[in-house]
Design goal:
Blueprint (H helix, E strand, L loop, with lengths): L1 H16 L24 H4 L16 H11 L5 H11 L4 H56 L5 H28 L2 H20 L1
Helix pairs in contact: 1-5, 1-6, 3-5, 4-7, 5-6, 5-7
Length: 204
C-alpha cells in the first residue's frame, strides 16, 4: 500500500505540472504543440477577387447558405465538395465571380467560426485539467499524511485512494482527448484552403 501511495503522489506531481506548459506565453491555456493563431486571415487561403462587398450578403441566398453548410462539414468528401463547387460556380464571368465570392465568404466565416469554437473548447478543457491536477496533488498529499499517521481510519484512506485513482483516470482520459482535438484546427484550416482552391479553379 505504501509503495502504491508513493507512486500515486509522484504521478500527481507530474500531472499537476503537465498542463501548465504553453508554447506561447500569450496563451497560457493553449496546450497544443501547434502555435495558437486565433483567426485565419483571408489572404492566407484566398487569392481570388476581394470579398469585402459580399461578406454580409451570402447568408441572404438560401442556395449559398445550404451549400456552405454542406461543404464546411468534414463528413463531406473533398471530391464531392469540389464537384459541387464546379456545378455552382457557373454562368457569365460576372455571375461566376459573384457566386465564387459569396461562396468563399460563407465558407470562410463558417470554418473560421468552427475553428474558434474548437480552440476555445481546448482551452476550457485545459483550465479544467489544471484545476483537477491541483485537486489530485492535494488529495494525494492528504492521503500520504493520513497513511503516515500512527492511527488512521482505514475506510477514509481507502475512500481517498479511490478518489485519487478516479480523478487520475479522468485526467488521463482528458489528456488523450486534448491530444486528438489539437489536430482539429489544422484539419479545418486545410479544408478551408482546399475549398478556396477549388473555388478559384472554378473561376478559371
Amino acid at each position: 500500500m505504501r509503495r502504491a501511495l508513493i507512486i500515486v503522489v509522484a504521478l500527481a506531481a507530474v500531472l499537476a505540472s503537465a498542463p501548465a506548459r504553453a508554447a506561447d506565453p500569450r496563451y497560457p491555456d493553449w496546450p497544443c504543440n501547434q502555435l495558437k493563431v486565433p483567426e485565419i486571415s483571408v489572404a492566407a487561403v484566398w487569392s481570388g477577387p476581394p470579398i469585402d462587398d459580399v461578406r454580409d450578403t451570402w447568408q441572404n441566398d438560401p442556395q449559398v447558405r445550404d451549400l456552405v453548410d454542406r461543404l464546411a462539414a468534414r463528413r463531406t468528401p473533398m471530391a464531392d465538395a469540389e464537384k459541387a463547387i464546379a456545378q455552382f460556380v457557373t454562368g457569365t464571368a460576372a455571375e461566376k465571380e459573384d457566386k465564387a465570392k459569396r461562396l468563399f465568404a460563407g465558407l470562410f466565416e463558417n470554418l473560421n467560426h468552427q475553428r474558434s469554437d474548437v480552440m476555445n473548447g481546448i482551452e476550457r478543457i485545459t483550465r479544467k485539467q489544471k484545476a483537477l491536477a491541483g485537486k489530485i496533488r492535494g488529495d494525494a498529499l492528504e492521503l500520504r499524511t493520513m497513511q503516515d499517521a500512527a492511527e488512521h481510519d482505514q475506510s477514509k484512506v481507502e475512500e481517498l485512494t479511490n478518489q485519487v485513482a478516479w480523478s487520475t483516470r479522468i485526467f488521463e482520459d482528458r489528456r488523450k482527448t486534448i491530444n486528438y482535438v489539437c489536430e482539429v484546427p489544422g484539419l479545418i484550416e486545410r479544408r478551408l484552403f482546399g475549398l478556396a482552391r477549388a473555388i478559384q479553379q472554378a473561376l478559371e
